[in-house]
Design goal:
Radius of gyration of chain A: 22 Å
Largest sheet of chain B: 4 strands, antiparallel
CATH class of chain B: Alpha Beta
Shape of chain B: globular
CATH topology of chain B: Nuclear Transport Factor 2, Chain: A
Distance between the termini of chain A: 29 Å
Shape of chain A: globular
Number of domains of chain B: 1
Largest interface: A-B, 40 and 32 residues
Structural class of chain B: alpha+beta
Structural class of chain A: mainly beta
Oligomer: heterodimer
CATH architecture of chain B: Roll
Number of strands of chain A: 33
Order of helices and strands of chain B: HHHHHEEEEEE
């Protein structure tokens, strides 16, 4: 009898270990409309969520506890980067100042407990920093780039630090004079800095995808046009560095394009054929420890009103030169509801964890699936992460993790009115077996 | 620890585990397929009965919760199209895929006394028609998706 009970308890413990923990509301005020929250984790496994609240403070939540609220006079923020360049928390933010329309980008280092923030460093020399703002960090280098309207058209400027953010340049640097930018990313390699942007040359009416590069971060090459499209322009871009070489990906209403430089530095770019005419809505590009690249996205065919989008994973084992056929991740039986806007986390053991917004219960719920063999196979049934499936309206999830732990940030509308200024943030820990 | 104590712990653990599991990927309380279809047909006819009776409040309650969260009942009730009359509605066909259903309704309608911009009154004699409706299974029952046919838009985004 005793042996049977012990065996039973062991089986039970195994089952429980696969469970999903309860979701937890972590915001004290609703998220400010149209400002995405940020989810990240440090090397000790501390989980951070940062978001602008409707009280116009920047809220910093560590391990589900609000630890700091920050505000500049009249601030209504619109950008957050939070990292640990030298181990300590560092923040880049833009609390847009209402008075006089001043728009500064601040860098601030903090103590481990996020109670004391050093005096802010203003990164822009003028007072007109616009979105997009992008940050890249590699070892001791920290680069921050933004669109700046001090001179029209609003082109890209940057500032950088080579000592983990302790000091920045006194004057910022023009990167793309004469080119307006709507999307931008930086890629840092050992020898060069790359700026990928979607924009338009002054006096021209066509939007293009451009790349510029610099050996020292100060003197920049003229932007080189990679691609331009007749009927659409990209709505998202991502970069990743593989084998110390940048891979750039962009996406929009008609597919996903990518570019990379060859050994001689000559750029090659094209559309991923498998995604041609697909209406792409979110991309996530990640490099795994073994060097493989994973590109997660969701789409349906452009103009197709009968089918809703699904989540797909593409892989590259040659540094982004070629991409696999898309592997469908979601398993809903019918294609009359959306599975879209996915995010992914790759665990140290290579497990790819994907979460997405799924409407099979009509209201948006967050679903998850995972693959332990580099995306070849997935659980046969997706897992609904909502505590009460079908009850709430969740959207645009974020996922991160530490060792065997996986955390999902779930933005949730407060009601069926789907008001973007009434959004709460929920956190859920998901323990994946094995 | 005695066997009984272990047994009690095991039972409690099973209970707790079951509670936890109930929150994952469950559709507890869903009627089976036949019940769902019967419910859909009943709700669709309820909507048409309300439409024929001019009961806009009853119609409002049958529309999807996204619509009801954005449009007040009184606002909806004020928009009755009194010049269109409907007769003999019946469910002509039903196609349920998951929580989305397409329902085809056969009915007759006529237009009486529609006031045109010119000031003239317009009548259209009674004729048969088939309409397509989308119904959504939410919170354990079916709701008709409100669609603005002028802009082809809906508050329900799925």
């Amino acid at each position: 009898m005793k042996k049977t009970l012990v065996l039973f308890l062991l089986i039970l413990a195994t089952l429980v270990s696969r469970d999903v923990f309860a979701e937890e509301k972590i915001n004290s005020v609703p998220n400010r409309a149209a400002t995405p929250p940020l989810l990240t984790i440090d090397k000790q496994g501390n989980l951070f969520v940062l978001h602008y609240g409707d009280d116009e403070f920047l809220h910093i939540i560590k391990n589900s506890q609000l630890v700091k609220k920050m505000k500049k006079d009249g601030a209504a923020g619109s950008f957050i980067w939070f990292g640990f360049p030298d181990g300590n928390p560092s923040l880049v933010w833009r609390p847009k100042l209402a008075e006089g329309g001043k728009k500064y980008i601040y860098f601030q280092r903090a103590d481990e407990n996020l109670q004391i923030f050093e005096k802010e460093t203003v990164l822009n020399s003028a007072k007109d920093a616009l979105l997009p703002i992008t940050v890249a960090q590699k070892d001791e280098k920290l680069f921050v780039m933004w669109a700046d309207e001090r001179k029209m058209p609003p082109s890209l400027f940057l500032n950088y630090s080579t000592d983990y953010g302790r000091t920045f340049r006194n004057e910022d640097i023009p990167v793309t004079p004469g080119y307006a930018a709507t999307l931008a990313r930086i890629a840092l390699t050992d020898k060069q800095v790359y700026c990928l942007f979607v924009g338009r040359k002054e006096g021209e009416d066509k939007t293009g995808i451009y790349v510029a590069s610099s050996l020292n971060g100060v003197e920049w090459s003229d932007p080189q046009l990679l691609e331009t499209y007749e009927e659409w322009s990209p709505a998202a871009i991502e970069t990743v560095v593989a084998d110390d070489s940048p891979v750039m990906v962009w996406a929009g209403a008609r597919g996903i394009g990518y570019a990379y430089p060859d050994a001689e530095g000559k750029w090659h770019s094209q559309l991923i054929e498998q995604t041609k005419d697909m209406d792409i809505n979110r991309i996530k590009l990640t490099r795994a420890e073994n060097g493989s690249l994973f590109l997660l996205t969701s789409y349906k065919r452009f103009g197709d009103t009968a089918k809703k989008p699904s989540v797909f994973l593409l892989t590259s084992s040659n540094g982004g030169r070629t991409w696999s056929e898309p592997i469908r991740v979601n398993h809903n039986k019918y294609e009359n509801t959306s599975a879209w806007l996915p995010d992914m986390h790759i665990r140290d053991d290579g497990t790819i964890v994907v979460v997405w917004q799924d409407h099979r219960f009509i209201r948006g719920n967050i679903y998850m699936n995972y693959s332990k063999d580099a995306g070849k196979t997935w659980l046969s049934e997706d897992i609904n992460l909502d505590d009460e499936p079908g009850k709430h309206n969740d959207y645009y999830p974020y996922v991160t993790g530490y060792k065997d732990k996986v955390y999902v940030l779930i933005p949730r509308y407060q009601s069926d009115s789907l008001d973007t200024d009434k959004i709460d943030l929920y956190l859920k820990e998901v323990k994946i077996n094995g | 620890m005695g066997n009984l104590k272990l047994f009690v712990i095991a039972i409690l653990a099973v209970g707790i585990f079951s509670l936890g599991c109930a929150t994952v990927n469950r559709t507890s309380g869903d009627p089976d397929a036949e019940q769902r279809e019967a419910l859909l047909r009943s709700r669709a006819m309820e909507m048409w009965s309300a439409q024929m009776a001019g009961d806009r409040f009853a119609m409002y309650e049958l529309y999807d919760p996204f619509f009801r969260a954005r449009v007040r009942k009184g606002q909806f009730a004020d928009k009755e199209l009194a010049y269109v009359k409907y007769y003999n509605p019946e469910v002509y066909a039903v196609n349920i895929e998951g929580n989305v259903a397409q329902v085809r309704i056969k009915m007759e309608y006529e237009v009486k006394g529609l006031l045109l911009k010119s000031g003239r009154k317009y009548d259209e004699p009674r004729k048969e028609n088939i309409t397509n409706e989308t119904w959504l299974f939410i919170d354990g029952t079916w709701y008709r998706q409100f669609i603005d046919y002028i802009t082809d838009s809906s508050f329900a985004k799925y």
